[in-house]
Write a structure and sequence with these properties.
The chain is α+β, with helices and mostly antiparallel strands. The chain contains 6 helices and 7 strands; from the N terminus they run αααβββββββααα. Helices cover 51% and strands 15% of the residues. The strands form 2 sheets. Strands 3-2-5-6 form a 4-stranded antiparallel beta sheet, with no helix packed on it. It has a 3-stranded mixed beta sheet with strand order 4-1-7, with no helix packed on it. The protein starts with 7 loop residues before the first helix and ends with a helix.
Length: 281
């Protein structure tokens, strides 16, 4: 027994519906492909502009399964890279006693991000941002440079939650060193050290000159008169060698000795050490 044939009108209607649906489905597919490609391009530009949060949002669009395979592969890779680069910060505020101000409200570049502090990290784009903390009628701002890839950067401020201005501790000036002392508190070099030292060096120089002069004069006499020189010619050499020279060397040694003594002596505030040196004469 043969089955009844489907009416021709039903077949025509089904074909017409299928014919109308096919173009609509194709257009929708093309629109989704175009949306994926546009999202991928936007994400790349946003990444170059250091707007990593917005770039990740666009990468979510082009990472959907319905996107073309090549776009899906690229966006998935970029998603991992951008997520690793997005910095995070942890907000903290303390009062003058060092206690956490949990009620502090925080805005970043004028945009409110927290109505209280909970210790959780929040994401920010890299770059310089102004963090504003408010609590108890007082506020403070802090400009911070956030770098790509920073995670858990602590942004902490001192905030008086009572609404009063936290007083800045007074800076006590360092005591000036007493006269005759260096800033480290050690005794300065006595002027007698320089006086005695200079005099001693000068005396030693005179003694050395006399010694050289005697040798030169003796050589001159030896060449002019030999062993027949008059006593009046020899006396000046004897005076230099046996009297003036030893005196000069003695004064030089004494001067350097006194300079050494005054250098290691610690002067008292009333100049006791200097008086002691003067008492030697």
């Amino acid at each position: 027994m043969s089955q009844p044939c489907r009416p021709l009108s039903s077949i025509v209607l089904a074909a017409a519906v299928a014919g109308l649906a096919a173009p609509a489905w194709a257009d929708d597919r093309n629109d989704r492909k175009q949306a994926c490609a546009t999202a991928a391009e936007d994400a790349q530009q946003l990444r170059m502009d250091a707007k990593l949060g917005a770039a990740r949002d666009r990468l979510l669009v082009c990472s959907r399964p319905e996107c073309p395979a090549t776009v899906l592969r690229d966006c998935s890779q970029w998603m991992n890279e951008v997520t690793a680069l997005i910095p995070t910060v942890v907000l903290a505020a303390r009062d003058a006693q060092g206690r956490d101000v949990l009620s502090a409200r925080v805005s970043i570049d004028g945009v409110a991000v927290a109505s209280g502090l909970d210790g959780k990290a929040i994401e920010v784009d890299p770059g310089t941002h102004t963090f504003r903390f408010e609590a108890g009628g007082t506020a403070t701002e802090q400009a911070v440079l956030i770098r790509e890839g920073e995670k858990g950067r602590l942004i902490s401020v001192l905030l008086d939650a009572s609404g009063t201005t936290t007083a800045t501790p007074a800076i006590t000036p360092a005591p000036q060193p007493a006269r005759g002392e260096t800033p480290e508190g050690h005794a300065s070099t006595s002027p007698w050290t320089w006086i005695f030292g200079g005099a001693g060096l000068v005396a030693l120089g005179i003694g050395a000159y006399l010694e050289v002069s005697v040798n030169a004069d003796a050589s001159s006499l030896q060449g002019s008169c030999g062993h027949s020189c008059l006593q009046s010619q020899v006396d000046p050499l004897v005076l230099k060698q046996q009297v003036l020279g030893p005196i000069a060397f003695g004064v030089g040694a004494l001067g350097l000795g006194l300079a050494t003594y005054t250098f290691f002596a610690v002067p008292t505030p009333n100049g006791g050490a200097t008086a002691g040196v003067a008492g030697l004469f």
